Amino acid sequence: MTRVAVFPGSFDPITNAHLDVAERAAKLFDRLVIGVLNNPKKHPLFDIDERVGLIRTCVADLGEHVTVDAFDGLTVDFARRHGAGFIVRGLRAVSDFEAELQMALTNRKLAPEVDTTFLMTALEYGFVSSSLAKEVARFGGDVTAMLPGPVAQALSERMHADPRV
Ligand code: PNS
Known about the structure:
five-stranded parallel beta sheet; binds 4'-phosphopantetheine; alpha/beta
C-alpha cells in the first residue's frame, strides 16, 4: 500500500518550523505533496510562484517522493486529486490546537477517507511563524533562526526592494 500525504499551507514564506514538519513527514509517507494555497485575497507577500519556488529549493534534498504544487479551493479536493489519504499539519503549541481541530473535523466531514495527522514542531521552532518572521524582517531584525537561508535572503531582498512592505 502506498501512503500518500498532502501538507497544505499558505507558506508565505516557508519557515524552519514548516521545514521541520516536512522533513519528518517525508520519512513517514511514500509520497508527500506540499500544497501551497493560492489565495490572493490574503494578499501574500510572496506570490504563488515565488512561494512554490522557495519551497522547492528548501526541500530539494528530501528526495523525489517530496513534491510541491499550488492549489486553490478545498484542501480535501487537492488531497483527492493527488490520491492522498492523509493531510499533514504541524502543531507548535496548545494555541494551535483549537483551529487545527476545527479544520481537521471539517475536512473529515467533507472527506471521511482523508485523515489528518499532526506532527509536533521541534521545540526550537515552537515560536516560529511566517507572520512573525515578516514582522521581524520588516523592522530590520535577524530572521536566520526562523527561516531557511534562501528564504531569509529572499525576504531581506523583498524588504529592501519595497520598504513599505
Ligand atoms: O498555513 P495556514 O495558513 O495555516 O494554512 C491553512 C490552510 C491553507 C491549510 C487552510 O486555510 C485550508 O485548508 N484552506 C483551503 C480551504 C479549505 O479547504 N477550507 C476548509 C478546511 S478548514
